[in-house]
Amino acid sequence: MLERAFGKVNLALDIVGRRGDGYHDLKMLLQGIDFCDEVEILPARELQVTTDRPDVPDGPGNLAFKAVLLMSERSGRKPNVQVRITKRIFAAAGLAGGSADAAAVLRGLNRLWSLFWPAEKLEKLAAELGSDVPFCIRGGTVLATGRGEILEPLPDLDEHWLVLAKPRIEVSTAWAYRNYSAAAVTERPKLAPLLAAVQANDRQALYAGMGNVLESVTCRTYKEITAIKEEMVRAGAARSLMSGSGPTVFGLVDSQEKGEAVLAAVTNKFDVETVLTKTLRRNES
Ligand code: C5P
Description:
The protein is an alpha+beta fold.
């Protein structure tokens, strides 16, 4: 059983309130991308989760392990599977890599154990694992609210090329949210025009409406992120933004050739992991 686990970028991330449960109320425009891990699920004598990257935990420290236990508990099946994760999505990067792997486990076990649970049910289970996991069940272009788990699917965007660049910095999501202060925000996403831009597939309006309030936390501490954003635009990106709590920066470009130029420019100047990829439609995820 092989599942592809696609990452995401935030075309918008706005914090609209603090909640009693320690989380923040968000408004996010999430976009699935054609950049994925591979998650292989095999019957085994006992539960085992392994990855091919030393900086990503094996076993109980991996969200995919918790995903197996959750599916096992709710379905009554024994969690006797081996999960082998081939990582390509940069780790701790703001691209939902760990969430995508966990979502792939939910989808994969749904098939392996012939449960036939609908996507809506998997999304509810996914919310118990993390705020970005529900989106990763189906991908596409989505307005996410609540703590990120309330999903409103939007029409697919026309294809956009994008360059991702992740500096060698570890950013904890909890740290970014803890240090957020509305007073420090200089650029908020413009949600209403952005949603209109998605409906109309209007690229210029999309670029103009994008924004991520967590840049006010992460970019203040790590100046390199702002420098990478600026270099991407200098090299030809139509728009650049940090994804999630960072540190990955993505640049939207209007052709593959421009993407190659932007990728070369950031690789020359910075110590970054990079990839040139595309947005993904919901039915391609
Ligand atoms: O849900 P997840 O485990 O991915 O969240 C990681 C951390 O990010 C949470 O513990 C919380 O500190 C912060 N967070 C938040 N508000 C959200 C999502 C995450 O404060 N909506």
